[in-house]
Write a structure and sequence with these properties.
- The protein has 147 residues and is an alpha+beta fold.
- The protein has three helices and seven strands.
- It has a single domain, classed as Transposase IS200-like (Alpha-Beta Plaits), CATH 3.30.70.
- Helices cover 31% and strands 27% of the residues.
- A four-stranded antiparallel sheet has the order 5-6-4-7, with helices on both faces.
- 14% of the residues are buried.
Length: 147
């Protein structure tokens, strides 16, 4: 379900970005990480790029913004800016579920390397990001492939 609300975003001294909706103002950013099942290194090359493209489509469909993203061979890092109407656990479930379904349809050979047919480990890490740490987290995610 997609909710469309008229919102305006204001940049206050390039420090705090607030978004205003009907009767509320917010600035919610999360650093999210989840891993492949058994830490299998299957998110490589074309599959990694496909993950990124699919996550962008999911973000557009559910009206949240991906600020930074990197797909490592065995895990994914995201920096999200989202509305308060979404529970973070629901957003992660939507992203992991839709992404796994599409990858299994497009690449059925992935199931043979994963016992039980699950792409993702059921756990995840979600950390709130403050105005002070925003640029640091963004740089960390963008520099993952360089390490």
């Amino acid at each position: 379900m997609v909710l469309y609300v008229m919102e305006k975003t204001f940049d206050l001294n390039n420090i705090s970005k607030l978004t205003y909706g009907r009767g509320y103002a917010y600035s919610l950013q999360y650093h999210i990480v989840w891993c492949t099942k058994y830490r299998k290194q299957i998110l490589k090359d074309a599959i990694a790029q496909e993950c990124k493209d699919l996550l962008q489509l999911i973000a557009e469909q559910y009206a949240f913004q991906i600020v930074a993203m990197e797909a490592m061979p065995d895990h994914i890092h995201l920096l999200l800016d989202c509305r308060p109407q979404f529970l973070i656990s629901d957003m992660i479930k939507i992203m992991k579920g839709n992404l796994a379904r599409r990858l299994f349809l497009d690449h059925p050979e992935l199931k043979s390397s994963l016992w039980g047919g699950h792409l993702w480990n059921p756990s995840y890490c979600a950390v709130t990001v403050s105005d002070r740490s925003f640029e640091q987290v963004k740089h960390y995610i963008e520099s993952q492939k360089k390490k």
